Amino acid sequence: MSAWLLRDVRPYGEDAVDVRLVDGRIAELGRDLPTGDSRVLDGASGVLLPGLVDLHTHLREPGREDAETVETGTRAAALGGFTAVHAMANTDPVADTAGVVEQVWRLGRDAGHCDVAPVGAVTIGLAGETMAELGTMADSAARVRVFSDDGRCVSDAGLMRRALEYVKAFDGVVAQHAQEPRLTVGAQMNEGVVSSMLGLTGWPAVAEEAVIARDCLLAAHVGSRLHVCHVSTAGSVELVRWAKSKGWDVTVEVTPHHLLLTDDLATTYDPVFKVNPPLRTAADVEALRAGLADGTIDCVATDHAPHALEDKEAEWGAALPGMTGLETALGVVVETMVAPGRLTWRQVAQRLSAAPARIGRLDEGPSPQGRPLAVGEPANVVLVDPAASWTVDPRQSASRSRNTPFAGRTLPSRVVATFLRGRPTVLDSAIVETAHAGPGRA
Amino acid sequence: MRTATRGPATPPAATRSPSGGDPAAAGTATPGTAAPDTPAQDTATRDTASAGAGNADGTDPRPMGRHLLSAADLSLDEATLVLDTAEELARVSQAATVKKLPTLRGRTVVNLFFEDSTRTRTSFELAAKRLSADVINFSAKGSSVSKGETLKDTALTLEAMGSDAVVCRHSWSGAPANLARWVRGSVVNAGDGTHEHPTQALLDAYTMRQRLGRVEGLKVTIVGDVLHSRVARSNVLLLHTLGADVTLVAPPTLLPVGVGAWPAAVSYDLDAVLPTSDVVMMLRVQRERMGPAGERGTAYFPSAREYARRYGLDVRRAQALPDRAVVMHPGPMVRGMEISPEVADGVRSTIQEQVANGVSVRMAVLYLLLGGAQPAIGSVPSEPGRRGLS
Amino acid sequence: MTATPSTPSPVLPATPPPATPPPGRPPTPAAPGSRAVLQGSDVLRVVDRIAHELLEKTGGGQDVVLMGIPTRGTTLARRLAARMAAFEGATVPTGSLDVTLYRDDLRLKRPRALEPTAVPSGGVDGRLVVLVDDVLFSGRTVRAALDALADLGRPRAVQLAVLVDRGHRELPIRADYVGKNIPTSLGESVHVLLQEVDGRDAVLLGAAGEQR
């Protein structure tokens, strides 16, 4: 493997140095390194971050290859600066067996754009009734550590308790999609002033918060760790803050769209703004930003949810919920958190790389993710031009789907290059078209 | 004739939607429709010109109005224009031996009904035909449950037919707004899900004006299933625009969360409100809203009997109304539960009136949307918003 | 015609028009560059003459219904009826006929607000209906009025009375009673002002771009 010398880059946005990547690892960090036989990338004082890790990606394969495939989804991920994504389990067939998770994992390895860590379903068929063979998935080649029925809530308290307990045996975590189903029958958008005017059935904040409160108490009771997907309300942030103050092992994620968009976008009835959990109010957005800033919210996860055109070009009520987000995630975080001075670049690295890798236990094993920028660590890095800006054009997306809510919006900062174990997956903000080179997460 | 006045300057689009869109986005929404203002030599322009001063260069800052999707699409001047026009049309229709006017000859109006409603469809059909428009009835049964591709495909078909207006009834809230993005003609919302039914509100206001001589200052009480009522939403918005005081009366379970932000008062006590009501509008309550919990969620109230006792309009309650008060019902009525048979029969005359008024009001809407080079009323749907918190 | 103000000196007591225009209608100022072709008493005299002609040609106003085309045609119809009553005690019913919905130029402008249509209680069937308008120009308004009238009933005959005929007909239509012929160029505009509507009586000839 050839060596790369990244000249004039600023790790974590701090002092400029040169960084040499050799044999998949960071070999040298220092000023004025000799070129030697390395290929050189001029960093132009861009920000160097550890490769981003997404805890929450829908790659749709198997089952809805018309909306996304592992290949197209991981291309979008690499362009967004990600070197690892967790592929959610709500595929068809559902990723509730070792066979399916290994298939997804292999597809990711073969595509080679970033690592794909499959998420296993908590219950068979996401039906919320019978626990899937979590241990077998954990022991498979895919080394599953995150289990989730995402898209549906594990609403049965008894079942949730058992799942939380059971995954302790292999250091797994249940990632809960917190949505009390009886409070969200037919729900279409955040319940509030806007839903009342639009005549769309409300999805009340309490339906999320009640489940989070219950699950925090359950996790504490059985001494398990709990991860909560896509928190969206101010009340959820408060509950998590309380749970953490008790010392309970609870982690949470927030999506980029919940950090930026509000429910009044639904007044257009354009289903591109339909998502689950729904866009909330400006007060919720502010609470989420504050929670992410003070660490109550551990990480940003995209909930990248591609949908085929016919599932989005529909009446609001008939359209499927979800938004794409891999390529826009960093830009939204910079706009909402970095530009206003609420997060440093070092904290961005924590919230988008180290924390999600830790939650998914990707920071362990032979080729770990989410590690710091230090000599000897795996060369998973992303180079960002913080001064650039770009306008989101759905037609330019590497995703097979076009359902980005940020279309037409200009976002700050741009991913220039992404390296996966020392190999560039993105250069000059474009995919590097090579056959996969790395061994994946062996 | 007076010398030309400037064209209608209109409040920013954002103030016209229920909860406000992004003014900047809305302002740039449809470059194609920002037609230059024609010299305002006609009275329609004069009538709509009072909302504000025009631009110095004489261009209308607002994209031309095109659709009637929400009662909020109508400014006070526009709503008044619709009612005045309906009144004249009713007078002409009454006086004429021939019930057909040549006004919309050559225009095509499509009735696109994804949900059965013989009354509303017939009313629109009659209105269009009285103005000599060609009418195509396009009923798309069962499409409410299928994927939206159907709606878009249908829209493109209508587009190919060259329809000038699409009158759309749909079981999903917002479907007419979606349609408006896909067709070039005007879209009239004939009832969408639990969202709005603006022409129903117009005919209700028309009936009030006819019965009581005015709408401004009237105390209007709307009783019943506000949560699921598109009639209630449109009426609240339109009556507010026209200067009436609206009070909503319902069990708390049948009022939406967020109703506090509506331009209406809220009460749970019908008896307290009736003595000061000029108009009582009884909304239909669907029986599936009560009873045991099921697939569709939990019940909103325990029984028809209890509902009738607390919110039904019976003879005793009707006697508490002031002498001139009018009882209205968008129909069809659930006798015995929301309205007692005796009161219902008293109401019937209003219902007959409302049927005739419905045709006049819909004629007015079609005339004002299609009768000229540019629509005189309505709004363009705002573009997908471009804002977050920052 | 001179543009000097003149005081009304009617032969007979003129129908007293309202001293002030209705609220919301400020006295219409002369458009810049326009000049008065008729004003004040000229207009009154012309109206009187048409009233006399009407009485003469209709046998004292027998069976006549005056249908004015809003806005000023309606006002003129009322004036004519009042003068016919003053001259010979004829009781001539008046009404108004809005032709907006029958116009052939609807699609050239925004939809117009409708003006009132009012048919006298006796109706128009079997009557001699005299359409009354302020200015006869292309003839299209009168054509629309004929269509509108046909929907209201079947008059025995229809005639046309106008205060001003400015020429440039686009249809085979002529007036039976003309107050004044005013030769104009196409680019000019003719405005009739009436006391009841505009605060004064006048016929103004103006520059281009102001015609109705």
TrEMBL record, chain B:
InterPro entries: Asp/Orn_carbamoyltranf_P-bd, Asp/Orn_carbamoylTrfase, Asp/Orn_carbamoylTrfase_sf, Asp_carbamoyltransf, Asp_carbamoyltransf_Asp/Orn-bd. Belongs to the aspartate/ornithine carbamoyltransferase superfamily. ATCase family. Catalyzes the condensation of carbamoyl phosphate and aspartate to form carbamoyl aspartate and inorganic phosphate, the committed step in the de novo pyrimidine nucleotide biosynthesis pathway. The keyword Calcium does not apply. Pathway: Pyrimidine metabolism; UMP biosynthesis via de novo pathway; (S)-dihydroorotate from bicarbonate: step 2/3. This is Aspartate carbamoyltransferase. It comes from the Bacteria. GO terms for biological process: 'de novo' pyrimidine nucleobase biosynthetic process; 'de novo' UMP biosynthetic process; amino acid metabolic process. Residues 66-210 form the Aspartate/ornithine carbamoyltransferase carbamoyl-P binding domain. It catalyses: carbamoyl phosphate + L-aspartate = N-carbamoyl-L-aspartate + phosphate + H(+). Residues 1-49 have a biased composition (Low complexity). Residues 216-369 form the Aspartate/ornithine carbamoyltransferase Asp/Orn-binding domain. GO terms for molecular function: amino acid binding; aspartate carbamoyltransferase activity. Residues 1-66 are annotated as: Disordered. Heterododecamer (2C3:3R2) of six catalytic PyrB chains organized as two trimers (C3), and six regulatory PyrI chains organized as three dimers (R2). L-aspartate binds at K147, R230, R284. The keyword Transferase applies. Keywords: Pyrimidine biosynthesis, Transferase.
